[in-house]
Amino acid sequence: MSKSVFGIDYGSKLTGNTVVAIFTESQILFLDVDKGVDADHFIINAADHFKPSHIFIDAPLSLPGVYRYSDRFNNYHFRQADLELKAMSPMFLGGLAARAMELKSQLQDRDIEVMETYPRVLATRFKLKARGYKGSKVSLRPCAQSVLKRFSTNIEVDVEDITSWHHLDALLALISAMNHIQGRTEVYGDQKEGLIYI
Hints:
Blueprint: E1 5-9, E2 19-24, E3 27-32, H1 39-50, E4 54-58, H2 80-85, H3 90-108, E5 113-116, H4 119-125, H5 140-148, H6 165-181, E6 187-190, E7 194-197
Parallel strand pairs: 1-4, 4-5
Antiparallel strand pairs: 1-2, 2-3, 6-7
């Protein structure tokens, strides 16, 4: 895995809740978007600098198929992938979904493959709920340590860099990206409508 890949926990534009986890040169780095900074511009700048081959983002990158193929789909709220993974409706997420789709277009213009992921699925598989996933801040360290144990020892990553649940979700998104590069990704949904990669 020579090229870099990103995992992004995507938040509101100016809230400082967006975190980018980057795998590059056998190490994992985290970039935090500060409050008041445009998260979308920040991601574009990071992509221009690191030139990732793939970006996995925790945000809807398509709308339910009924809006484009009314003869084939009939659900106005959920895509097939949302139903399979019990994910939120892109319609409920509204402006965030629209921003993510626009960002995807801008990143694809740079020859970066942008894919939708859902970190909660890996959190469930890794049994993080039992360790207090997204509960109190005290639970963050044990959850992070549990996830980091899954990485091979030749990948450099510091648990001290994971300072919020946004960091942990970005790391989970990054794991999905790394799985994809290694040909181990799982795909949910309908190709015509939009897929989620885990």
